[in-house]
Amino acid sequence: MKLLILDAGHCLSLALAREAGRRLDTRLVIEAASWVSPERLDQIAPDAVIVPPLSSPLSLAPAEVTAHAGAVEACLDACLSRDVALVWCVSDQLYEAGYNEPIDEHLVPEPRDASLRRLVQTGDRIRAEYHRHLIVRLGPLFALEGSHAWLGQLIDSLVAGDSVRAAEDVIFCPTSADAVALALIGMLQQLGCGVRTWGAYHLAGTEPVSAFGFTSVVRTQLATHLEGRGEALTLGEVKALNHHHDAKLHRVLNCRRVLEVFGVHQKPWRLEVERMLDAWCLTRDEPGADGQGGTA
Question: Any idea where the RmlD-like substrate binding domain is (predicted)?
Answer without folding.
Answer: 67-279
